[in-house]
TrEMBL record:
It comes from Phytohabitans aurantiacus. It comes from the Bacteria. Residues 142-299 form the HhH-GPD domain. InterPro entries: DNA_glycosylase, HhH-GPD_domain. This is DNA-3-methyladenine glycosylase 2 family protein.
Length: 308
């Protein structure tokens, strides 16, 4: 049996205001990735794929609160090299959106009286994302003509059978495989997770199409150009493109506000009549995605009304 030890420790800075407690609450309610991490007392453990160096292998990252950021402890069978550690620290930073500058959104929301209770309940919240582009792309492809529960279960089974894993303290942690590894699966292998051949075709189209794009450009290129490139991928429609842009790449410039779940969130925040999608976009501008995330994520965190 391979010995697993602590191979790296670091403190990752977070852009204020940031609350690790809010990240834990958001993770606990992030249904697409339920059971993909282990929440302990005031900490969270999750497997990440070590990028580079040949064959896929996993490390387990434990995150705990630290002054002005989070403390990252890495468990592994062997220490990653300096380049791999730099990528790993970047992956964790993106997963928890530690370096997101929320000031523009908070300024817009601070002048919106209806948002005051949510801002108070979710002070220091940064968006929790999918931990990798591969995981997000596969999940959103699996949700097409399916339910969130089935998509999450199929995604989790694919990871369990094809992702690198590591056991820490008796718990097996699995990292999601790379886009290239998923693309290399045969149709019959992929069919086990897609459920039917129509969804299999969509998953393959999305995986191969996203794999052909430059990930760093997807994260940093002009929003309109990136959105156009994603929509040009067969199998990616408006909902999947928005999902990838906001929940995977962390780009808050827009959200599918005309969908029922966001209309319901607007009604819950503002009452009837709720602002239209156009009005929300005008008020929040390039941070409207963070309005959508906060409105949906933090709504259940509001204190219960006092009994009459």
């Amino acid at each position: 049996m391979t010995d697993v030890t602590v191979v790296h420790r670091a403190v990752l800075p977070a852009t204020a205001p940031y609350s690790f407690e809010m990240s834990l609450r958001a993770l606990a309610g992030f249904a697409p990735c339920a059971a993909d991490h282990q929440i302990l007392e005031g900490r969270v453990r999750k497997a990440f794929r070590v990028q580079g160096g040949g064959a896929d292998k996993a490390v387990v990252v434990e995150i705990a609160p630290a002054d002005a950021g989070v403390e990252m402890t890495v468990y592994g069978a062997e220490p990653p090299d300096a380049a791999q550690l730099a990528i790993l620290e970047s992956d964790v930073t993106r997963w928890l959106s530690l370096d997101d500058d929320m000031s523009g959104f908070l300024a817009a929301a601070g002048s919106d009286p209806a948002m005051a209770p949510l801002l108070s309940a979710a002070h220091g919240l940064h968006q929790v994302r999918f931990a990798s582009l591969a995981e997000g792309a596969v999940y959103f492809a699996l949700t097409q003509r399916s339910t969130q529960w089935f998509a999450a279960a199929r995604k989790r089974r694919l990871a369990a059978e094809h992702g690198p894993a590591l056991e820490v303290d008796g718990v097996r942690h699995v990292a999601f495989p790379s886009l290239a590894a998923v693309a290399a699966l045969t149709d019959e292998e992929l069919l086990r997770y897609a459920g039917n051949r129509q969804r299999l075709r969509r998953v393959r189209e999305v995986v191969e199409g996203v794999l052909a794009l430059d990930e760093e450009w997807l994260r940093t290129g002009a929003y309109g150009d990136v959105r156009k490139a994603l929509l040009a991928v067969p199998g990616i429609g408006a909902f999947t493109a928005h999902g990838l842009l906001l929940r995977v790449l962390g780009r808050p410039d827009d959200a599918p506000l005309d969908m029922a779940q966001f209309e319901a969130a607007a009604t819950a925040v503002y009452g009837e009549p709720a602002p239209t999608a156009a009005e929300l976009r005008e008020r929040y501008g390039r941070w409207v995605g963070w309005w959508a995330y906060t409105a949906r994520t933090a709504r259940s965190w509001l204190p219960e009304p006092a009994p009459a």
